Amino acid sequence: MLTFFLKKLPSVVMVAIASSVIAFVLPRLAPGDPAVALAGSDASPEQLAAVRDQLGLNGSLYEQYFHWIWNLLHGDLGRSFAMRRPVATLISSRLESTIELAALALVLMIIIGFTLGILSATLRNQTTKAALDVVNTICLATPPFLTGLLLILLLGIAFPILPVSGEMGLLRDPVKGLQYLILPAFALALPQAAVVARLLATAINSVRGEDFIDLAKAKGVPPGRLMRRHLLRNSLGPAIVAIGLRAGELLGGAIVIEAIFARNGLGQLAVSSVQNRDYLVLQALILGAVLIAVLIQLLSEITIAALDPRIRLEG
Amino acid sequence: MTDIAVQSVAPLLNVEGLSASFAGRHATIRIIDNVSFEVKPRRVLGIVGESGSGKSVTVRSILDMLRNPGRVDSGTVMFNGRDLVGLPEAEMRKIRGKRIAMVFQDPQAALNPVMTVGEQIAEALVVHGASRAAARERAFELLRQVGIPDVERNFDQYPHQFSGGMRQRVVIAIALANKPSLLIADEPTTALDVTIQAQILRLLCDLKDELGLSIIMITHDMGVVAELCDDLVVMYGGRVVERGTVADVFSAPRHPYTAALLHSVPRIDSNTGSQLRAIPGSPPTPARLPSGCAFHPRCRFAVERCRSEVPRLEELAPAHSAACWVSAADRMSVPPEEEGLVRKARRTLSANPILQIEDLRTDVNRGSGSFFSKAKPIFAVDGISLEIRPGETLGLVGESGCGKSTLSRTIVGISPVAGGKITVAGRDVSAMNPEDRDTIVRTIQYVFQDPFASLNPRRSIAQSLGEALGVAGVNGEKARERSVELLLRVGLNEDFLERYPYELSGGQRQRVGIARALATEPKLLICDEPVSALDVSIQAQIINLLEELRDELGLAYLFIAHDLSVVRHISDNVAVMYLGKIVEMGTAEQVYGSPQHPYTAALISSTPEPALDARQEKIVLAGDMPSPANPPSGCRFRTRCPIGPAYFPEREICSTSSPNLKETATGQKAACHFAGTPIKAGTRDEAGNG
Amino acid sequence: MTVPQSKPMHRRWFNPSIARYMEAFTTTRGIAALTAIILISALAFLAPVVFPGGYDVQSRESLRAPSFLHFFGTDELGRDLFVRSIYGLRSDLALVYFAVPVSMVAGTLLGLIGAVSPRLGSFVQRCLDIIVGFPGLILGICVVLVLGAGWTALLVVIVVSGLPGFGRLARATLLSQQQREYVIAARTLGVGKWQIMVRHILPNAVDPIIVQGAVFVVSAIFIEAALSIVGLGLQPPEPSLGTLLNNGIRYISRAPTYVLGPTVILIIVALAFSMLADALNATVNRK
Q1: pLDDT at residue B223 above 60?
Q2: Mutation target among A2, A12, A129, A219 for the B interface, most CBs of B within 10 A
Q3: What is the pTM of this model?
Q4: A3 to chain B: closest CA residue
Q5: N- or C-end of chain B: fewer Cβ atoms within 10 A?
């Protein structure tokens, strides 16, 4: 198990370094001088120098990069030029909203994905099965923003049951907070859940063709036990890989969902930072999102390894 | 037990008129048709047939375990006075694993990879109502009974930690868990090596006597039938063509197919100078079954009636039935065929070897190292020397994992050389630079094991042959002419040019594979298990073709196989490989006539022979071949050697010094410190430590 | 020695020509998908002919509900939303019909680069893995940051986000085909690397890539829409389905039907291409 972890570590470190380099280089690739863009074209040389200093644009590229990383590692994300506040404060004030959204979406994705997947692999009735497949295909082909819009039209406007814009921290008021959260989280989770469901169903159906399933049947194992002990345990791999990859998509999708449901989260911060060319905020957000996505992927690989004795015992 | 006595015993299982079919998209295809047989208590029934004969479908139908979209159409399966056909699923579950148990072909795939072997055995008891503690207790007992060593530790191991032979023992333990009265074994030894097959057959034999089991044994191998079975059912094209006791069927077969099957396989003690008596054509697929008797297109006795009417299974002698119009008419057994044609005289051999290998090593673990560490070398081929002269056939025998395929792939440059020297047509090609490869391509070609995999399914036969001819510089209209020539040479014709591989039978594809190898006019063909993926009745055709080509074109062969009888039939010289090294080498007569290495002796003894007089004490090797990543010190065979330190502790030299290949009293070379020591046949039946 | 001849069967599926894919359009699903795609594309690209007035005709009737005069209603400046949606669709289709093939070809080439050198192949694979590490819109934000919002940024985002999928498929085919016995057979015959690539590996890579291409068209349209919804896509006054939605969301409580039209068109396009992908997939997997 430890050897497995050690084997994975170099590639995780590589991705982390690569994405930090990308986050660092991006603003420097943009045409024009970022300092001029921020300070305005009529700024005096002194003002420009001050802006440069604040953006960490002095010195050679190497110095700039290591200076930036050094500060990051010490928790200093710099100051937002546009908002005139420390980047760390900006991010932490928006963090709760996005974390609540992504976490609930993750939970919904897993629950809905597994339920649909197992159902579609076990249903024997051809009509119900076909109906379920159609529902799944539609979910699969409908991105979060469309689901979100349709939910708003349906549950917010046609039958006004749930609030469709704004938010409330779960910590402040759990009931109200959940009311605001449930629609966006559901919209975010549904298409990803359909992906998980389809992969799980495919995996179960292919395991069904294995000899050891025949052996289990020949032993007299009843269907419920067959699903739990033999089919599901050997089919989890692809579903968990999908969950790992899709968790990253949840972060990306959160940006659009926040725009549609008027939630003031990190996604909105990212969008406004692009419009303001607020580089330091964006660098921190991009790096954070990529690192979280990579860590979730690593976590899913470790889970698979822990479930499979062939990896767990041999490394 | 006389036949009269057998007749009087009530059968345990009686299958009557069983038919099953697969519902396809356009048509329903009948897979088995009106199959009837019975299994008597404490007897072993063999069901023999080739691919598509319906033997597996028959036994799966008994337990209602047909895969979708298969279903039983009609018939009865009486078991203990109850008809199993149409039994509700819940009732059927009480019979599966409890009263009738099943053993599958491939032990690699038959065990759940994420459950420990102990859990899987215990589960068979738990689902039939045993308590967890009792199930666990009984699982320990069962593991001991099937010969798994160190049960306390192995109980909690996962299947991937077991060797193939040990896994098959676990599958058998699962089957025996609830003390069933009938065991169905579906090709239980086909996926195993010959020495492991001997272990498993011995185990089944012992268990049958010990527990009073009845067994249905499905196999394609008449040798296995001769070894284990009492009664026999022969299936062809989904129907039973012959039924009787093994003794009766073997001594006087009533159906031409049975007779041909018995005579078409080479014997380990056979006369190598004559051709095999091959059955022409190939077994039918259920979707396109010939009319009348399904065997008539391949039968040399066929008359008009055989083409139109399906013959009924009729009792032609006491307790011996066959479905054949011809033998029913004259009530005679099939006359033995005339002796096969004696082959043409061979061309004289010149003295300069076409291929010479000296002290060759191949590291199969090269380049698989991780980011931090270089991989530890694994020498699948570890110091091998041999030579082949023009027109000569060297047979290379060994079990899976011994490195024989790695050796052949190293010779043609697919696997890199790690040490030693390869000389092809007088040129040292070990460096494998472009000119070396050119020499190799012009001299050596390769015939692959699996004709389904070695032809690109997207390319027509003309395209596949054209590719080979293109390399030899033959293109355009000329290439087409040559392709037709090549096809005729291998017994096909021009019609095949525009076909695609999926339209061809296995035997036809293998012929195309051979034609492709001949395109560059090589001097040496490496045949890597060229018949082992083919049906029994096709194997003889291909062997005959290879011998014909060798004699006419003066080809040399490096013939690699695990089947000792086939190798004996075709080879001038034979080399036996074990764990990356050659343990014995000499002429076929020397090696087979008086094997000097205990491994060779055990291999020959373990090979099942399709003759009744072959039932004699075997040398059954214990354990499995160790991994080439971790070879034993000294002699590599010592862990399993029946004359080595495992049984004679005073023979310490085997653990300390590796024996060299040296000349023995009988003329061949053997790598054994105690070469030629006689071996006591007997039960050394316990699996090693994996 | 003679061998009984088996009758030649109809040879359909192994013919590696374009005609093989036409099989997909003999099924109901395939015909429906193809008809829908042709109709949608024709309507979109003929928009300047059908609606010669252009997409910017303003009127006083702002934020109206759908009627016979205005199928999808009108927007905040009284412009006909149906006309704007069709012009928007035209922008989207022009974008994906250009970007998706580019991504397919580039991704395939990157995936097959391992045939030249295994080391280079695995390096490229590592790089593609890094792109996968950038979840969805984050990649879009990075590109917009460098290039500024507009056509170029959208093109780059779509091409780059398709690369890992196509590259991985091509590489998987390459690795599995290299292990196939018929490729090894070709090597022992002395057939050159390029010929093996063209004869054995490429034809096998084409099938999954084409199916993935149809799937990716849907993703590409959604990438455009998502970026435009957050305001980082095409900039006004140029309409695209995403920018229409962006505007519509602002008026969602006053004119809920505003977003309905573009949404319906998006769903129709998505379903049509998903069905096409399914039909192609069923065809290439039939053997």
Answers
A1: yes
A2: A219
A3: 0.84
A4: B370
A5: N
